[in-house]
Request: fold
Amino acid sequence: MGTSRTFSIHFWLNLSKRNGDLAPIYARITVDGRRSEISLKRLTSVTYWDTKSRKTTGKSPESRSINSYLDQVQVQLYECYNQLRIEGKLVTAKLIKSRFVGQEDLDKTLLQLITYHNDRMAETLRPGTLKNYFSTERYIKRFLVEKRKTRDEYLKHLDYSFIIDFEHYLRKASPLQKGRSLNQNGIMKHMERLKKMMNLAVDLEWLERNPFSRFKLRFKKFKKEFLTRQELAAFEEIEFKDSGLQTAKDVFVFCCYTGLSYCDIRQLSYSNLVRGIDGEKWIHTSRTKNNVPVRVPLLRQARSIIDRYMDKPKKFEGQLLPVISNQRINDFLVEICDSLGIYKHITFHSARHTFATTVTLSNGVPIESVSKMLGHTKITTTQVYARVLDEKISGDMRDLQSKLEGNVPYSKQTLKAEGGK
Reply:
């Protein structure tokens, strides 16, 4: 049930709208220090207004009618307040005003927005993405109950302070899953999802202005790890008796040579293997993330892994490779890196970075081709992966040195011919 610590009603004259001796009467509602004001559409004499009793002291029938009306307004406002408490709804100054003036039913709430979004996006968003929205919804509901002392909030009552308070709550809130507290980027992802839903509310005209308009999403940038040429070779050479370790390693190496993400490799079947325009085997698929078509010619290293698992059982009929859960593969990768003495935070997504950096870009493959194979819609996205290895820089500088040294005799001759000095 919504609760409040303080509630008061105050009648006053708005002198900024005074016309001669007459000024309009307003009612000020205050709940827990937050105010909302209502124009009562009545004028009265400034001379006869008593600021202590908040009534007019005039003796005319008109003055007595105004005082009687103010008594009725006060009773109605108290009734609105008590009704909201009994109904277990929001108890705010703005909501009392909305109920008093008869606009409450026209307003949409935050939870109505979330429900509308999740229902409409169920067929558009990936299951994993939709699951994340459900997590954000759970945090919002907890925040409303624990910090706002209510079970819902009207959209038009949301302001910048609501956004700041929710961010602060996420930093100290107990996690939904034990042992997995929110870090900076986790907090920002929840804020980003709430912001997207607020944008939807503006598009639907449920909200005039997005309270996120001045809020900055502050994601922390992390170093994107990848395997060097030597580390990738070590991965390829090592063999394990444990079938789980071996399978995790092979699937990871396959993605190092194809650039496919976990979601994409998990969806692959033999139907995705086709003959390319060069007569060689290619993978034709679409990215799970954005449905962008992906065409990747299979290098020898990738083909040999497919051949290895051609006749081995898989979880699903027709599956190209036996892909286990992402979390389990990441656990195996930690164990493999320890056995190889590779002290990096390597996850399955590191295979995608390895393909972009070590396998393709550092070997002279144009970034436009790499971008196409990764399924990026913008070249700037590929540039995040396109880090140049020290080895490549060293080789480029050796080539430059050779060219410079080759020009030295010509330079001396040129100087002699020009000045003879």
Summary: The chain is about 50% helix and 10% strand. The radius of gyration is 34 Å. The mean pLDDT is 86.
